[in-house]
Amino acid sequence: MIVKRAPVRRRPRKAKPGTKGLGPDECRLDHPTGSAAAIAEAIEKAGGCVVGSYKEPLGGHPLLLSVLPIGAIEPTPFQRDLSDTHHKRLADVINKTGRFLDPIIAVTAPNQGFWTPNGRHRLAAMRRLGAKSITTLVVADRDVAWQILALNTEKAHNLKERALEVIRIYRGLEEEDSSRPESQFAFYLDEPALVTLGVCYERVPRFGGGVYHPILRRLQTFTHDPLRTAIRDHEKRATLVLDLEERVAAAVKKLKERGLVSPYLRSFVVARINPLRWIKGEPPALDEVLKTMRERAAKFNVEKIKPQDLAGTGGPPDEEA
Q1: pTM of the complete model
Q2: Strand 104-108 vs strand 133-139: parallel, antiparallel, or unpaired?
Q3: For a designed S-S bond to 209, which of 27, 177, 197, 290 qualifies (C-beta 3.0 to 4.6 A apart)?
Q4: At what angle do helices 144-151 and 159-176 cross, to 10 degrees?
């Protein structure tokens, strides 16, 4: 089986100034129609009010500047976990200024009410301050909730948070329409490796995925299989990775018992058992690589390792979580 590398994501070329989108006068939207009118009705029904509407200047899509009751909006279930420190700091800043100046983006939720794909911490900060309502930019197209991962100003900053965010998006997409091919959502999911690692972190929160990420990233690609089928493959590979991690952890424990101390013992062991170090050209399939690594980890001879062998070892520290 030949595994093709994912195509390189190319950034758009810099456009000539003033050649794309709408001019200021063209952005005027006095009377929302179609889906925007339906959203305006939903806002009013939720107890909110539309204070303005316009076409955003790049793509001309309608946006409704609204004020919603704070109880009518919740964060999307696939965002990273709430940071207690971050939302308290935001609450302090908002309280000092006495003004909420950064509207959150909102879309209609699948059942009722609204979701915010990028405003979890601002929403929590306003709730902490006891606010009755919150300013929102309501988008008529609910699919933007999936796309927001690429636009998110509150994007996760470490591997665990990124992977958990991606697997939550994947679970949400699967609930919406599990028959659509996985490859259609490559833009939202960023890397197939993050889906597999996300499953690992769901099962073992303190899993140190940094040492396995380069291997998964090199060998995994998004498939054309339906989401309901593709997720089973990710779950199967997550099981293989976690089984491998148990064997690597056993080898690390034996090295520590011999008095070898380093924050990179796990990276050292994984590097020693990784067959990709010696393979030129097209690599084997991921399942085959993981099987080889599990076999090598089980046979890892700690007696042959000397302190000087650890010199220069790098990679993610063992306690990454």
Answers
A1: 0.63
A2: parallel
A3: 197
A4: 170
H or E stretch at 158: none
- Let me know: does 89 contact 65? Beta carbons within 8 Å: no
Map residue 208 onto helix, strand or coil: coil
Distance CA 160, CA 210 (A): 9
Whether the pLDDT of residue 187 is over 50: the answer is yes
Neighbours of 86 (CB within 10 A): 15
Q: Which helix (H) or strand (E) holds 52?
A: strand 49-55
Residue span(s) of the chain under CATH 3.90.1530.10 come to 32-150
Contact 230, 296 (CB under 8 A): no
CA angle 38, 41, 44 (to 5 degrees): 155
CA distances from 295 to 31, 145, 209, 244 (A): 66, 42, 19, 9
Token digits of residue 104: 């959150």
Q: Residue 298: phi, psi to the nearest 5?
A: -65, -30
Which amino acid is present at 316? P
Over residues 43-79, the pLDDT tens digits come to 999 999 999 999 999 999 999 999 999 999 999 877 7
Q: Give every strand in the sheet of 133-139, ordered side by side.
A: 49-55, 62-69, 133-139, 104-108, 114-116, 73-75
Q: Using alpha carbons only, how large is the chain's radius of gyration in Å?
A: 24
- Residue carrying structure tokens 């070898």: 260
H/E stretch holding 50: strand 49-55
| Third-level CATH fold of 32-150 | 3.90.1530
Which is nearest to 199 in space by CA: 158, 233, 156?
233
Angle between helices 227-257 and 192-203 (to 10 degrees): 60
- Measured distance CA(120)–CA(118) in Å, rounded: 6
Q: For the chain, report the end-to-end CA distance as a whole number of angstroms.
A: 33
The alpha carbon dihedral of 188, 223, 280, 295 has a sign of positive
- Residue 150 predicted with pLDDT over 60: no
**Cβ(303)–Cβ(252) under 8 Å?**
no
